[in-house]
Amino acid sequence: MIPIAVSQRVVIDPIHDERRDALDQRWAQFLLRCGLTPVPVPNQLKAAHRLLETVMVDGIFLTGGGDLADYGGNTPERDETERLMIQFGRDKRLPVLGVCRGMQMIQTFFGVDLHAVDGHVATLHSTCIEGKSAEVNSYHRFAATETVPDLEILAVAADGIVEAVRHRQERIQGVMWHPERTVPFARRDISFFRRFFDTVTDE
């Protein structure tokens, strides 16, 4: 099992006046199927930096859920943590993967502007992935229709929304769909995660 650093949502609990870090339990199930051990990263910059420097991880993974602060989100501490994680991955030459919000973070990190989109929340739609048609889930309110020179487009929805990107020189990639929310998990997604993080399993 390969350990990877995993970002977490911020859940705001007004009753107890707490800002809680949280990770969908389905991610642990999915990542284990991919031969990966999740190492949750706290959304506190100093603690996140300390963890990344002291715990040996072989990859960086940015999960989904919630909007970036620049686009109306209310968890700027998560944005800071994920930017740190991307930069750490680049500095250490680790593979960096983002899903949905995680891909949005990768896009904005490299200068892509997002905009509000319709028809991409809690739905299935057809996507062209490297020339092949595939149906994927969708849970995002912001996206892009173009990219920047550092990133190449790997998948596009029928309405022109960019669904996957890859850095041209570095091991950085993002997809807009949620593999952990597909029941049962899609073999396509499991194979992709295994290849991306170079995992070897018995399956």
Rg from alpha-carbon coordinates:
16 Å
Q: CATH superfamily, called what?
A: Class I glutamine amidotransferase (GATase) domain
Mean model confidence by pLDDT: 92
Unreliable segments (pLDDT under 50, ≥5 consecutive)? Answer: none
Task: Provide an overview of this structure.
The protein has 203 residues and is α/β, with parallel strands linked by helices. The protein has one domain (2-197): Class I glutamine amidotransferase (GATase) domain (Rossmann fold). 28% of the residues lie in helices and 32% in strands. It contains 5 helices and 13 strands. It has helices at residues 25-33, 45-54, 76-92, 101-109, 187-197, and strands at 2-6, 9-13, 18-22, 36-40, 60-62, 96-99, 115-116, 121-129, 132-139, 142-143, 151-157, 162-167, 172-175. A 9-stranded mixed sheet has the order 4-1-5-6-13-12-11-8-9. Strand 11 (151-157) and strand 12 form a beta hairpin. The protein is globular and about 40 Å long. It starts with a strand and ends in a 6-residue tail after the last helix.
Task: Indicate the topology.
Layout: E1 2-6, E2 9-13, E3 18-22, H1 25-33, E4 36-40, H2 45-54, E5 60-62, H3 76-92, E6 96-99, H4 101-109, E7 115-116, E8 121-129, E9 132-139, E10 142-143, E11 151-157, E12 162-167, E13 172-175, H5 187-197
Parallel strand pairs: 1-4, 1-5, 5-6, 6-13
Antiparallel strand pairs: 2-3, 7-10, 8-9, 8-11, 11-12, 12-13
Summarize this entry quickly:
By secondary structure, the chain is of the alpha/beta class.
